[in-house]
From TrEMBL:
Its EC number is 2.8.2.-. Pfam families: Sulfotransfer_2 (PF03567). It is a single-pass type II membrane protein. This is Carbohydrate sulfotransferase. Belongs to the sulfotransferase 2 family. One of its GO terms (molecular function) is sulfotransferase activity.
Length: 66
């Protein structure tokens, strides 16, 4: 199968989200952004740390079974 990208008129954009500037960050800039940004409050589930989803220590287990 060959991937055919959508035409510009087929792409839906969310209101209020600016179009890309056309300038991609370097790898270093991207990593610094990840380190410097509080991704837990960013609002995008794809960037949230997994430990915020998987919290087995928060459960008060009364039975452990096989």
């Amino acid at each position: 199968d060959t991937f055919i990208p959508p035409r510009e008129d087929q792409v839906l954009r969310k209101e209020g989200v600016p179009s890309p500037a056309g300038i991609e960050p370097t790898w270093r800039e991207f990593v610094e952004y990840l380190i410097d940004t509080d991704l837990g409050s960013y609002g995008d589930d794809h960037w949230m740390p997994y430990y915020l989803y998987c919290t087995p220590c928060s459960v008060n287990y009364t039975i452990i079974a096989k």
